[in-house]
């Protein structure tokens, strides 16, 4: 499978991650935001959400996002179904529940099937970024690095200033037989803009 990767950096989304009293009871506060941003972008760029069946390209009418979970038995990918229709609170609960049951070996077989796209949070293990491998029959996978605070240049009324912002690298690996570089870049730009926009009040679900 010819594979390629694109790497973007997202910054200035600390407001979203630090919404008071929102998702603090879940261990990985960033992952639901990444998953929601990706699921919304999949609706806008269905080629990234496509799957391969034999010689055919299938365009599902849903966004079933597989979440990579590190276990003693290796990497497993339980599926959050219809992810684009869930609120952040629902995504956080679903991801936490699936991850816990995956590590405890309590998943049902069908909970590992039917994913159309994968998100892997290599940042949870301290990685700055990675170039993950696509899980066939999917055509793309998003890797998210560790969220770190860095000085960045921000502009306000035409004036530049240095400010501290939460930043993360977003890496998209994709099957180059199906997805070209322009589609990958547009998808990552949409995810980046969604995170940096920080307007999640309407989808918090709390």
Q: Helix and strand succession?
A: EHHEEEEEEHEEEEH
Strand count: 11
Distance between the terminal alpha carbons, to the nearest Å? Answer: 42 Å
**Largest pleated sheet:** 7 strands, mixed
Shape: globular
What count of helical segments does DSSP give?
A: 4
What Rg, in angstroms, do the CA atoms define? 17 Å
Structural category is: alpha+beta
Helix content: 25-40%
Low-confidence regions:
19-27
Question: How confident is the prediction overall: mean pLDDT?
Answer: 87
Portion of residues in beta strands equals 25-35%
Provide tags for this entry.
206 residues; alpha+beta; 25% helix; two-stranded antiparallel sheet
Brief summary:
The chain is built from four helices and eleven strands; from the N terminus they run E-H-H-E-E-E-E-E-E-H-E-E-E-E-H. The protein is an alpha+beta fold.
Describe this structure in words.
By secondary structure, the protein is α+β, with helices and mostly antiparallel strands. The chain has helices spanning 14-17, 30-44, 88-103, 181-197, and strands at residues 3-11, 51-53, 56-58, 65-67, 69-71, 74-76, 79-80, 117-120, 140-144, 148-156, 159-175.
Q: What topology emerges from the helices and strands here?
A:
Elements: E1 3-11, H1 14-17, H2 30-44, E2 51-53, E3 56-58, E4 65-67, E5 69-71, E6 74-76, E7 79-80, H3 88-103, E8 117-120, E9 140-144, E10 148-156, E11 159-175, H4 181-197
Parallel strand pairs: 4-8, 8-9
Antiparallel strand pairs: 1-11, 2-3, 4-7, 5-6, 9-11, 10-11
Helix pairs in contact: 2-3, 2-4
């Amino acid at each position: 499978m010819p594979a390629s990767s694109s790497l973007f950096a997202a910054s200035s989304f600390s407001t979203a991650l630090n919404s008071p009293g929102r998702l603090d009871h879940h261990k990985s506060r960033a992952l639901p935001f990444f998953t929601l941003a990706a699921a919304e972008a999949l609706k806008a760029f269905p080629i990234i959400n496509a799957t391969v069946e034999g010689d055919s390209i299938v365009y599902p009418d849903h966004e079933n996002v597989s979440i990579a979970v590190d276990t003693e038995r290796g990497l497993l990918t339980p599926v959050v179904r219809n992810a684009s229709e869930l609120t952040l609170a629902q995504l956080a609960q679903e991801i936490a529940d699936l991850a816990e049951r995956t590590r405890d070996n309590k998943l049902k077989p069908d909970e590992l099937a039917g994913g159309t796209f994968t998100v892997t949070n290599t940042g949870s293990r301290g990685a700055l970024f990675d170039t993950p491998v696509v899980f066939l029959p999917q055509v793309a996978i998003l890797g998210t690095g560790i969220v770190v605070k860095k000085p960045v240049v921000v502009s306000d009324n035409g004036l530049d200033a240095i400010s501290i912002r939460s930043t993360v690298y977003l890496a998209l690996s994709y099957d180059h037989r199906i997805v070209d570089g322009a589609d990958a870049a547009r998808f990552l730009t949409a995810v980046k803009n969604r995170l940096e926009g920080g307007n999640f009040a309407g989808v918090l679900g709390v």
